[in-house]
Recover the amino acids of this structure.
């Protein structure tokens, strides 16, 4: 019976594809789970699949394999190669944007713009499908990731900033956007005020507390691990940090209690970080950990019958290839010769660097014998001893590299470990940065209306909007309504912007009715709190956040706030 059901589902996939140009004609589902494996090129997935198959001959396929249905052309508003901020922003809001912009409308770049840009909307926050599902469908919203929580991809879903590095602007927005479940990294970033807001509003908060998360019975929860990012999966201590699969299962279990549905974004964050480091071991093992999380979500979706699962990447990274020119005869190597060494490593490059910096120099060779299957060559040992970041070098720091012939090696310890790891394989890299090729797309829909073929990043957003019944202009229209300029919303009222005091991240907007000074609003940026009354005695909690932009000294907020002054 199970086999027959599976065949019928597969037949439905074949019979009812949704082509790229037709992404709005989809059957709505109650729940949507979006998986983004950051900075993942197709060759990264191929490497991971080969490694899994080599280590486990009975597992030749990944969980995504039966559901691969196309590719996505993903880019910035003014450049074909994007970073995580504008690329995931476009998935979430349907608006391509500029490098570093987190769900924020781009400024006009003239002839460089890939699509037309409205100069009047520059720096306006753009509403995301997560925010819309929460606000207009009553859905619960959740985020799972392995980076720190205000990092670009999770921030793109639930915050707005023209500068992705401004965590002091982004973090409070994510806290005040009333997400139901957040699990990932960033303990040190959640300050006392943010934690108080969460606890005062019914959230359980766990910091480096795996047992607490596992035993939690609350519907709303934040669980954070690591001061900043979480460990690579291959380096992870399972007694201290959960796997991304466990985080995904936990989030789904909580979010699915809402009868109105949920939106969940799960990011395999550090595949991208490993790609920047040119560390093929961390890239592949973190991708495999991500794929197991995908498997957990697909298992839920097939049983639930009301859930769509979408799996993609935000951009490529590193130009990784199986085979490189300096590895002579690589195209004739056996699977043992290509993949055995990759599966022998027991740590990421970062893991090796931390371990090397914690043991005496005399123990380094034993470390590599036990965790890499080889000893460092004289040249590699020379490069290590001359590395500026190496604590236990027998060479005084002032003399390093003076006698070394190993200047071709990285001067950072993690970079050196990546080079050593890679040099013992036939994996190649073209860059330490992002790349512009299309990325993979896989999906599951309970009634088979999946996106097929090559989609643009805009079309993928329209597909997700269609799953919730939102039209292609809905998010843009709601951006204008919920992120309107304060000068337009409060035209005819007295508006005063009070500069931020020391320790504050946003100025305060005070708006007063000219005819009745008791009718007064006090508004802080990057929160969802508005205080009403002459003495700010009444507190109103919005279902969206207020965003302050210093570039134009503007607060972006709901246009309905003017009604509170009438």
């Amino acid at each position: 019976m199970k086999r027959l059901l599976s065949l019928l589902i597969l037949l439905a996939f074949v019979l009812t594809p949704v082509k790229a140009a037709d992404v709005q004609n989809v059957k709505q589902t109650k729940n949507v789970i979006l998986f983004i494996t950051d900075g993942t090129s197709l060759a990264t997935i191929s490497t991971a699949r080969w490694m899994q198959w080599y280590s486990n001959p009975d597992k030749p396929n990944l969980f995504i394999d039966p559901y691969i249905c196309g590719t996505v052309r993903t880019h910035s508003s003014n450049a074909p190669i994007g970073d995580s901020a504008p690329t995931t922003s476009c998935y979430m809001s349907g608006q391509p944007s500029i490098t570093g912009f987190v769900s924020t409308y781009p400024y006009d770049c003239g002839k460089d713009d890939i699509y037309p840009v409205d100069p009047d909307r520059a720096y306006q926050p753009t509403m995301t499908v997560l925010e819309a599902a929460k606000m207009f469908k009553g859905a619960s919203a959740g985020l799972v990731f392995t980076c720190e929580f205000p990092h670009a991809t999770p921030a793109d879903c639930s915050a707005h900033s023209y500068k992705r590095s401004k965590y002091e602007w982004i973090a409070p927005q994510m806290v005040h956007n009333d997400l139901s479940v957040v699990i990932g990294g960033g303990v040190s970033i959640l300050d006392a005020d943010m934690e108080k807001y969460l606890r005062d509003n019914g959230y359980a908060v766990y910091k480096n507390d795996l047992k607490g998360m596992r035993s939690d019975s609350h519907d709303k929860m934040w669980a954070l691990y690591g001061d900043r990012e979480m460990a690579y999966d291959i380096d992870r201590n399972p007694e201290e940090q959960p796997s991304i699969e466990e985080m995904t299962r936990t989030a789904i279990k909580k979010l699915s209690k809402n009868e109105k549905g949920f939106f969940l974004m799960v990011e395999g964050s550090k595949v991208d970080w490993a790609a920047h480091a040119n560390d093929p071991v961390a890239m592949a093992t973190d991708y495999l950990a991500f794929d197991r999380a995908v498997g957990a979500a697909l298992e839920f979706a097939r049983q639930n019958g009301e859930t769509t699962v979408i799996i993609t990447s935000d951009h490529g990274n590193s130009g990784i290839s199986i085979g490189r020119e300096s590895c002579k005869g690589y195209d004739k190597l056996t699977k043992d010769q290509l993949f055995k060494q990759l599966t022998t490593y027991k740590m990421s490059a970062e893991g090796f660097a931390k371990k090397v910096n914690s043991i005496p120099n005399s123990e380094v060779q034993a470390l590599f014998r036990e965790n890499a299957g080889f000893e460092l060559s004289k040249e590699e040992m020379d490069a290590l001893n001359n590395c500026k970041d190496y604590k236990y070098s027998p060479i005084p720091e002032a003399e390093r590299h003076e006698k070394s012939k190993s200047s071709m090696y990285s001067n950072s310890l993690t970079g050196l470990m990546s080079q050593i790891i890679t040099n013992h394989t036939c994996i190649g890299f073209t860059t330490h940065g992002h790349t512009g090729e299309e990325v993979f797309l896989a999906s599951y829909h309970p009634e088979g209306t999946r996106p097929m073929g090559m989609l643009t990043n805009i079309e993928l957003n329209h597909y997700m909007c269609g799953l919730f019944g939102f039209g292609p202009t809905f998010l843009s229209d709601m951006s204008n309504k919920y992120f309107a300029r304060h000068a337009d919303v409060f035209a005819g009222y007295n508006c005063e912007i009070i500069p931020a005091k020391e320790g504050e991240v946003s100025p305060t907007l005070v708006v007063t009715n000219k005819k009745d000074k008791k009718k007064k609003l006090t508004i802080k940026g990057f929160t969802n709190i508005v205080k009403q009354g002459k003495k700010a005695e009444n507190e109103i909690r919005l279902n969206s956040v207020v965003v302050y932009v210093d570039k134009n000294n503007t607060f972006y907020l709901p246009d309905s706030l003017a009604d509170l002054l009438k």
